[in-house]
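Q: What does the assembled structure look like for these inputs?
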Amino acid sequence: MPEPRRFYQTTAIDYPNSRPHIGTAFEKIGADVQARYRRQQGYRVHFLMGNDENTIKVVERAQQLGVDPKPYVDDMARQFREVWQSLDISFDDFIQTSEERHRIGCQKFIQRVYDAGDIYKRNYQALYCEGCEEFKTESQLTPQRRCPNHANRDLRLVEEENYFFRLSKYGPRLLELYEARPDFIQPEGRRNEVVSLVRGGLEDVSISRRNFTWGIDIPWDAEHKIYVWFDALLNYITGVGHGTDEALFAQWWPAAVHFIGKDITRFHCALWPAMLWSAGLELPQRVFAHGFVYIKNEATDEVQKISKSLGNVIEPLDIVREFSSDAFRYYFMRECPFGGDGEFSFARFAATYNGDLANNLGNLFSRTVSMAVRYFDGVLTGSRAIAPTDMFASVDLAALTASVSADIEACRYATALETIWRQVLDTGNRYIEETRPWLLANSSKPEYDLEACRRVLVNLAEAVRVAAILLRPFLPRTAAKLYAGFNFPGPFAEQSLATIVARPAEHEDLRVTAELVDGKLPPMFPKIEPQRAKA
RNA sequence: GGCGGCGUAGCUCAGUUGGUUAGAGCAGCGGAAUCAUAAUCCGCGUGUCCGGGGUUCGAGUCCCUGCGCCGCUACCA
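A:
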């Protein structure tokens, strides 16, 4: 047996000053599909998620609540994990940047960069708005160089001694990287943005702040804390043992892919590689920047950003409780292209759920199982001798599998799902209409032919098997139920996409093994009543 | 302002290197069927492929231009 290929992937770490919403969940689901797919294909996967806790906002929020930062972030981390678990996000580890392993790894890393001569001290000037009580960037200012929220008062110029990282010197090397590895940044549009940013010239970045009480000390100067990005990005290596467990680190680094939001592309594609070069570490293989989810207001038809002030935040747990995690996952993976932006509305959710999940998928499974039970008492005697090749005669299963694989690997999840629906599920439903098994099973009809009927059902079971395998990364619970519908040969866990064409040998005749209630299959996806599609 | 992207059926979107009557899903209309969660199947679109000009035997697909929308334009996550 060859050593299984390793696949280390990460998501962005989140700020724990508010609970995760559906936009945050979008990223995690997309990452989870990749992780589940890779595991299914035999990779050894390590899937890291986490929270970004060393920020001033955490301290402020904890103060508002009258608690210390650490218990606050620990409780938020618990809440985040709870949401991710309810969405069946199969993360292997969850790092909090307030953990010791992060502090130790972080300090060792920054020391290496310091020793390499890439960190120096100098004055940092910034514009401070007393109204907002925070620093403003040039790009945030009004034409009069005032704060947009407090245009009637001047900004204060604040100077502070900070440590700076020599990002500027890595510009040329970054451009070489983008040139040599065009797929380092995906999708391509994001890559172009980063290229033009770096072409425009990079400045050194400040990486420390004084007078912070929360965060990680600069190891050689405890008056300074490590500031934002230099701390946050390092979770990707401290989470797999950098500085604390070098054997583990050697096993997983470099990462196969970082999943991030499009807004933080430049930190991951310019700053992060430069940091790693400086410390003498390898670069991740790929950075994938996904789009954002917007809320479509059904009353006004407006497309809005998700925000607390607009009051349109949707709790993932609400949807999971009312429908299912698979329904939640399906909507976002099918309706929102991962590399681009997407929209959410309950009306659209209900339409997708009812059409694709309840009607096309759930009902296909239901009618298949139901006919097998009704016409054959659930046992397809002699099925071993029947090759299920009729239904997919018009479909090239090898090409279909290859195309779905390629789409998933490129994070074209919506395309992969569309292919599965059109080529597998639609084909299945059409096949039933064409063969009309209810006539074949009816002894009073001229079409009566029980052998032919059995053959049809063996083919339909095959559709269920193929669908189960293909859908597994997207809809883990549904896929498991589909596969458990019949006594297919071989445990589901061992069914890679290759087993779609190279079917495992049958040891016994097919029979229905789905759980029945009063002899019937309960609906997988009970319909959403249109009027219940709340606004 | 600069750089980049987008604008295709009522809605959401596909449309490789330019090549036959521009496609899918949903919605709508008509029909069939009844195994099934009234699900499914078949049929039905005179779409200015944003407008204008150009290259070409031929352009949704390339070039120029006008309009509209969006992204990026560094220390904010």
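Residues 346-376 of chain A form the longest helix (31 residues).
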